[in-house]
Amino acid sequence: MPEMTTAQDVLDTPHRRGSVGYRRITLALFAAGLATFVAMYCVQALLPALTDAFGVSPAVSALAVSVTTGVLALAIIPASVLSERYGRTRVMVASALASSVIGLLLPLSPTIEVLLVGRAIQGATLAGIPAVAMAYLAEEVHGNDLGAAMGRYVAGTTIGGLLGRVVPSGVLDLGSWRWALESAAAVALVCSIVLMRGLPRSRFFREQRIDARTVLSNLRGHLADPTLRILFALGFILMGGFVSVYNFLGFRLTAAPFGLPQGIVGLIFVMYLAGTWSSTAAGRLADRMGRARVLLASVGITVAGLALTVPDSLPFVLVGVFLFTAGFFAAHSVASGWVGRVATTHRAEASALYLCAYYLGSSIAGALAGVAWGIAEWAGTATFVAGLLVVAILLALRMFRVNAGSDRKVTA
């Protein structure tokens, strides 16, 4: 049965699963994940169309994704600092609304250069949501239910990633890339309004006036923790591999031997639903079975999925993308939730470091994957991502050896 709470419990204890506050938080953060990923990846399904419209190479059009995630990564730590001063909810809401407005203006871009500059600005305004969401959840949700709550937030990012790709891809069949991009911006705006209206105020946040020296000291403290260092590295590697695959998957499926039309290729992003389920399930399993075991299994599924995408067989590719997506989001859900458990102080900075690494992986690896594609197309991209995942397996094994059956910090 859901836990019964009194008015005093609501004031004095973190939200537990089944409470009204927990439901409001997870719904609002689900909408936040939607808004963020719709805005961030709405151009990914349009990369072949941008290549044709502006007469640029696939590697150049892919920068429309990389510049956004790269600038977002650099802005995450400043955004987390602002949240320490002005509050978690205020920063998240302002970030969502500002990025949505910029998204509505992006379809007016006359050149690829203007589009890339606009996408960079949008990345900066988006930073406030991922920079703060993890810290907000860690502060407001009871530790025993944090994995499940984080899983729901990550599930929102998966649905956002899906809508951010499927909606513009579907509109592209009826109009230009400009209308396709505008439709995605409208979806992000609706999600931002849901976040603004539904997000409960922080109850355990305490305003802090911090200076640059304090921030650097907090960051150094987190970087000195061996568990956090591994989690940051995993965020970089896993997100880098994930974005690399999805950036160039459309180019592969529209070319020989598949030759699929753009509208059909856009449906491949329905595979994000695998991540919606796996992120939530992994969060619950991590709470019950231990994060180390679930993390290692999730990375293994990611590797298996990538291997299946290599043969020139559409059924193999589809199954492979399904497993790859499910494994990635499960691993991310576990790793991001683990950061909130390990960092018992200055959580905003810890979350910011994880997400800085996460989105730098998207930007840097996504750009390098363009070079790999130019050398050997899908074989080159898959080989590049495989190299990243080998390192991810080694890191996950390290976490398993030291932390199996426990969520305590690494002590060696």
Average per-residue pLDDT, rounded, comes to 86
Sheet having the most strands: none
Distance between the termini: 41 Å
C-alpha Rg (nearest Å): 20 Å
Structural shape: globular
Helix-strand sequence: HHHHHHHHHHHHHHHHH
**CATH homologous superfamily identity:** MFS general substrate transporter like domains
What share of the residues lie within helices?
over 70%
Identify the CATH architecture: Up-down Bundle
| Tally of structural domains | 1
Strand composition percent: under 5%
Q: Could you give the count of β-strands?
A: 0
CATH fold title: Growth Hormone, Chain: A
Report the uncertain regions. Answer: 1-10, 405-412
| CATH class identity | Mainly Alpha
| Class from helix and strand fractions | mainly alpha
Quickly count the helices: 17
Describe what is shown at a glance.
The chain is an all-alpha fold and 412 residues long.
Question: What would the keywords be for this entry?
Answer:
about 400 residues; mainly alpha; Growth Hormone, Chain: A; disordered N terminus
Provide structural commentary.
This protein is an all-alpha fold. The chain has one domain: Growth Hormone, Chain: A, CATH 1.20.1250. 79% of the residues lie in helices and 0% in strands. It is built from 17 helices and no strands. It is globular. The termini are far apart. 58% of the residues are buried.
Write the layout of secondary structure elements.
Elements: H1 7-12, H2 20-41, H3 47-54, H4 58-61, H5 63-86, H6 88-105, H7 112-126, H8 128-140, H9 146-172, H10 177-198, H11 212-223, H12 226-254, H13 262-266, H14 272-289, H15 291-308, H16 314-342, H17 347-403
Helix pairs in contact: 2-6, 2-8, 2-9, 2-10, 5-6, 5-7, 5-8, 5-17, 6-7, 6-8, 6-10, 8-9, 8-16, 8-17, 9-10, 9-14, 9-16, 12-16, 12-17, 14-15, 14-16, 15-16, 15-17
